[in-house]
Amino acid sequence: MGLLHGVLVSALILAVHGFYTASDDVVELNPSNFNKQVLQSDSLWLIEFYAPWCGHCQRLTPDWKKAATALKGIVKVGAVDADQHKSLASQYGIQGFPTIKIFGANKNNPEDYQGGRTSQAIVEGAMTALRSLVKDRLSGRTGGSGQSKQSGGGSGAGNKKDVVELTDDNFDRLVLNGDEVWMVEFFAPWCGHCKRLEPEWTAAATEVKEQTKGKVKLGAVDATVHQGLASRYGIRGFPTIKIFSKGENPEDYEGGRTRSDIVARALELFSANAPPPEVTEILNQDIFKKTCDDHQLCIIAVLPHILDTGASGRNSYLDVMRTMAEKYKKKIWGWLWTEAGAQMELESSLGIGGFGYPAMAAINARKMKFSLLKGSFSDTGIHEFLRDLSVGRGSTSPVGGGALPKIHTVEAWDGKDGQLPEEEDIDLSDVDLDDFEKDEL
Questions:
Q1: How far is CA 210 from CA 13, 41, 144, 314, in A?
Q2: What is the mean pLDDT of the chain?
Q3: Sign of CA dihedral 379, 382, 387, 390
Q4: Is 439 exposed, middle or buried (0-12, 13-18, 19+ CB in 10 A)?
Q5: Could you tell me if 306 and 357 are in contact, meaning their C-beta atoms sit under 8 angstroms apart?
Q6: pLDDT digits (tens, 9 = 90+) for 275-299
Q7: Are the C-beta atoms of residues 79 and 68 closer than 8 Å to each other?
Q8: Cα separation of 84 and 245, whole Å?
Q9: How far is CA 210 from the centre of its chain?
């Protein structure tokens, strides 16, 4: 009983105070210091997003501390209590614990750490990322460090042009009739709260524009000038922020007023309104290379030959992939498929080897590593596979040959059942069977 009591007390202390103290070399991060410490820093950061109640997180803690000490002065190691700072976790799409992200050259687009969870593996992963960062700088690709400083938030950061000035004349055309999702601030120039919100709103607008490719926009209405708009939406206090999605009634924004809070809500809106990624057949080298180069992970299925499944069987596999693409659309991964035997070099490089269809692999083209689906090709099996990859638990192997394989140009599937090739009739009229020697018994 005493041991159980001690465990419960320890768990309670962790839940209240988090895993790390000022004496550790792990930097505790939160919405107040994240922008300055990480986004405006030129340093490489490894950041763990954890929950105090998470058993995997508790087991990682001593190795995370040990790695932080080993990397001190070389790579920054941080931690975010995602339970306490949900807006920060949401901003980076954290769905499981612990999730480790690498904030390198482009701080606005961190990479998922997919290595082991020992201190040795963490240090090796950090040094690999550091070498990549240095290589990029030598080649002139400085990434997003300066960009992060511009769009990070606070102190007037961001580009004021990214906040769209909305008026009685352009509001309906841009907001109500446009395809984008809008977050609109109604303000009064004399309002002190509005003045304090302005730099945060501006910084958020720049970051949201970058991260959503303009699919979510931030606007502002001077309610003292455009009183018709303010009256139409019942604006009674300043600042009031409303969310407009096409075809829906506007909703009140009730979140925080910091850049990170605003960005987090904008990314939620983006994910909710974004269409699922397409599941594309691998028809040529360009489709394969562009999909894998443009996405952090490329999910590839090798489906049985059409003669083995028919159209209905193949469509059932593709429906599973589409369901999973919808489920994981926040990750913005690429989704591809090919028929067994159509791309043998690809199968060989992934160790699929001509059997065991349907098969699935996830490729990280930047690291030239892949992971294979070990479970069933089903909603449950693929979900478990992708969930493990999302939190860095999936085992990986180097892509065969160390480069993306050669892809053959093939015809697109026509959506129909396969047909056996027609057999040619052989004319034996001119063949003298007596010329053939008979085997002796």
A1: 40, 19, 11, 37
A2: 85
A3: negative
A4: exposed
A5: no
A6: 788 999 999 999 999 999 888 899 9
A7: no
A8: 29
A9: 14
Give the type of residue at 313. Answer: G
pTM: 0.48
- pLDDT for residue 430: 63
| The residue type at 408 | H
Handedness of CA 107, 109, 114, 117 (dihedral sign): positive
Mapping DSSP to helix (H, G, I), strand (E, B) and coil, where does residue 207 land?
Answer: helix
Tell me, what's the pLDDT at 315? 96
For the beta carbon of residue 28, count every other beta carbon within 10 angstroms. Answer: 16
Gap between the Cα atoms of 28 and 77, Å rounded: 9
At 79 the three-state DSSP class reads: strand
Here the tokens at position 110 are 């961190």
- Integer Cα distance of 239 and 192 in angstroms: 9
pLDDT at 40: 84
Provide the token pair at 424: 């040619």
What's the pLDDT tens digit per position in 72-108? 999 999 999 998 888 888 888 887 889 999 998 888 7
* Residue count (the chain): 441
| SS3 of residue 62 by DSSP | helix
User: How far is Cα of residue 163 from the mean position of the Cα atoms in its chain?
Assistant: 25
Nearest Cα neighbor of 198 from 133, 245, 257 is 257
Structure tokens that stand for 113 in this block: 């750490």
Q: Which residues contact 44 (CB under 8 A, 6 or more apart)?
A: 75, 76, 102, 103, 104, 126, 129, 130, 133
pLDDT for the residue numbered 394: 76
Residues with catalytic annotation?
54, 57, 191, 194
Q: Which residues of 192-203 are buried (b: 16+ CB within 10 A; e: fewer)?
A: eebeebbbbbbb
118-146: pLDDT as tens digits: 999 899 889 988 888 888 788 766 554 33
Q: What is the DSSP letter of 440?
A: P
| Rounded Cα distance, 132 and 414, in Å | 43
pLDDT of 221 > 90? The answer is yes
The whole-angstrom separation of Cα 422 and Cα 420 is 6
